[in-house]
Amino acid sequence: MENPETSLLGSRGAARIIITEEPALPATVGGRRAGAPEGGMVKALLIEDDRKLADLLREFLAQHGVEAIVAPDGVQALSLLTQHRFDILLLDLMLPGMDGLTLARRVRERWQTPIIMVTARGDDADKIVGLELGADDYLAKPFNPRELLARIRAVLRRAPAETDAIQFVSGGLQIDFAAREVRVDGVRQSLTAHEYQVLAALARNAGRVLTREQLLDLVKGEQADEAFDRSIDVHVSRLRQKIENDPRHPRYVKTVRGAGYLLARET
Length: 267
Description:
Number of strands: 11
Low-confidence stretches: 1-5, 12-39
Radius of gyration: 19 Å
Strand content: 15-25%
CATH topology of the largest domain: Rossmann fold
CATH architecture of the largest domain: 3-Layer(aba) Sandwich
Oligomer: single chain
Largest sheet: 5 strands, parallel
Distance between the termini: 64 Å
CATH superfamily of the largest domain: Response regulator
């Protein structure tokens, strides 16, 4: 019997994927996958103009619990987003017409759906810009599709499960966990993925002080790194600029000197 293997994708000469036996996305609380629709597969929007690569990825992901719908450009991707609800976006940066960074910015203006950038543009500058625009993860081509699958699983584990509280309300602050939307006094706020994750972690522990280490663990889990740790304060500062009327005297996200942060709960 031949040894199972998986080809690298996104490089010339990668003609196929040899599917390996591997369990589908694991169940979580209540028997459902975090971020997945009840009773169904994880639904992904794959934004990729390379049809051959898109078909290979779609075939591979389908065998592992992920249904991928393909959009070859940004215009079609935005159209599909208005028609369907997706659990995750797989976004190539080098797209015809609207580039991936512009598309990510447009997506974040309306949706908080998790984004993994999958691209041949592996420069640190592109990675940093992509993450600042709201991407949850970044994978450079060529890549092993099993690594992409692992990253999808990791991002969805950090996404709120459907069995969690649907909504958090404190004064004028409203968080819709299912839609990953944040409103202040009825006005929708455009947050980056990291800003939303920090706020959601605080909201799920409202009234409780979280240290920077605890926030880091809740937001990034096993993929935490020193760079993100040092930027916790930066994310909180930027978050306050968006949700507080007076960021210097915050109403919601409060600093407990020498301890960490807490989200105030108001009736």
